[in-house]
Specification:
Number of domains: 2
Structural class: alpha+beta
Strand content: 35-45%
Order of helices and strands: HEEHEEEEHE
Radius of gyration: 36 Å
Distance between the termini: 57 Å
Largest sheet: 3 strands, antiparallel
Number of helices: 3
Low-confidence stretches: none
Mean pLDDT: 82
């Protein structure tokens, strides 16, 4: 019986030693990963081509509020510029549409359509602003190269070129 206990003790001790070696090796390897440092080289991604978006806004001069022709002209200038910006926002962000139709007795009773545009336009340039008859017109241009340059100033898109471990 004593021989059995001695043999059993020896096996337990060997097992504990093996566990200690495995644990030490695992901790040693895990510890090395925090010692190893790396250097990452990036390259910046640039598009191949840049589109130029154009928009035109119109405003009737005679319909503008104001007591004189010059006040109506100033309001028409503002309105036509806002309409041109709205058209640019539509091109960049798209429309949000809601529609509803009420049908009663197989006849449309109420038909409605609502459109909404929301967006931020940066970098647009007024190309022309002029009156033709009773309509004031503003032409805008949005060069996406300019938008890209504005964007790059804030966020630098990049891709990993090479990683060096040492």
């Amino acid at each position: 019986m004593n021989q059995f206990r001695a043999l059993w003790r020896q096996r337990v001790v060997n097992l504990l030693k093996s566990c200690a070696v495995v644990t030490a090796a695992a901790l040693g390897l895990a510890g090395c990963s925090s010692i190893i440092d790396k250097h990452v080289e990036y390259s910046y991604v640039k598009p191949d081509s840049y589109p130029v978006l154009k928009a035109v806004g119109y405003a009737p001069l005679s319909s503008q509020p104001g007591s004189s022709d010059s006040e109506k002209m100033l309001m028409a200038i503002k309105v036509s510029k806002l309409e041109a910006y709205r058209e640019l926002a539509e091109q960049v962000y798209g429309h949000r549409l809601s529609a509803s139709t009420t049908v009663q007795g197989a006849v449309a009773q109420n038909d409605g359509l609502r459109s909404q545009v929301q967006g931020l336009i940066r970098g647009a340039k007024v190309m022309k602003s002029y009156a033709v008859g009773d309509i004031y017109t503003t032409e805008l241009e949005l060069d996406m190269k300019r938008v890209y340059d504005l964007y790059i100033g804030e966020v630098k898109p990049r891709k990993v070129e090479r990683v060096t471990y040492y």
